[in-house]
Every structure is written in C-alpha cells, then in structure tokens.
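User: Okay, second chain of the day. Same drill as before: sequence in, structure tokens out.
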Amino acid sequence: MTIVSAEALLFDMDGVLVNSIPAVERVWSHWATDRGFNVQEVLHRAHGRPSIETLRYLLPEADHEAENRIVEQAEIEDVADIVPLPGVKELLAALPNDRWAIVTSCTRPLAEVRIRAAGLPTPGLLITANEITYGKPNAEPYLKGAAGLGFAPERCIVVEDALAGIASGRNAGARVIAFTTTASITDLVAAKPDWILKDCSAIRLDASEPTLKLALEEIAVSAT
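Assistant: Same drill. Structure tokens below.
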C-alpha cells in the first residue's frame, strides 16, 4: 500500500463514482448512427468531455444548444442501469463532507439524476458543465473544485478515469489518481497520473484530521 496525504479529494463522476458507461454508449451510439458518424470515433471523442464541446467539434455549423438538449434529455431518461462502482459508497461515507467534491463534465440536471439513481450522498460541492466556461482537459473545472472547498489545488488529489480529466487535473496542478475503468493501461501511463488504481475499493481512508491520510493499492505497471 502507498500512503499519501491530501487536504481533499476531487472526484470525476462517470467511470469513477458511477457506472454510466452503458447508458452513455447507448445514447451517443444512437446519436452517431442517426447522423451518419462513426460510432467508435464519437464515443472516443465524447468520453470525459462536456457534451456540448463534443457537438461543437463534430457539428461546427449546427445549433449546438439544440443538439445538446437532445443528447442531455436522452441521458437523463436512460438511468435504469446506473449503479455505484465498487468501494464508492464506503469511501464517501468515510470522508468528511467538506473534504470531497464531484467535478463532472455532465450538466447539473444530468449529474443530479445520476447521483440519485446510483444512491450516492449529495456532495457538499458539485461542479458541473453549468459552472464552467472551459471543460476538461482545461484546468478550470478542477481549479474551481479546489477553490470551492477552500484548498490549493496542489494540496488536492483528483480521481479520474478519462484521459481528458487526467489532463485537467494535471493542468490544475493537482496530483491525480487514475482508474482503469475506461482507458487502457497503456493510455493511462502515457497520461502520466501520479497513481493508477483499479477503482475506489483500492483507496482506504486511514485518518481525516488534520489532513486526509489515504492508503492506495496501486496497480503494478511493467516498464516498457
């Protein structure tokens, strides 16, 4: 186990706290098929980014707000198999409420629906696409998350699964835990997080005062 200290944890949501991958892939696959795009390319582009940024990239001349409303409504309605990932409920229950936040590329309505569907506690601080100007991989989301909790970003640990989110955390100056729930080990290594873990079940809170003391069960990565 690797022992680390931090003032706070900043969690991405999809792929970190909740398993929404089936729902996300259903919605974006349907959208891509309807509009004649390659499904796999759209899924790769969409993961970890605000949906409106994906739409701006894929449909530069479209009404992005209208397209985004279509995608968002489809995602809000597709929550039948939204579930918490392993270890999430136990870790969040152990953390002081003022020492963690959710920083997601979802809109606030969609984030709130998924948090409820997964049965997770309501975070004291929730940063969504509605609160930012520049989405991941820009540093803004995690800078706002750290500031909202009252800590310098370098004293926080970002918990991510998406490459864009890992870059966002690094760009903010935070240390980053990367989960293997979405990206390959090869891609995660290339993104240069500080630690690579399986999921929240690999994080144990040993102490919360005066700072968080965390035991991490890292995944062994072979040198190439």
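The two ends are 23 Å apart (CA to CA).

User: Thanks, on to the next one.
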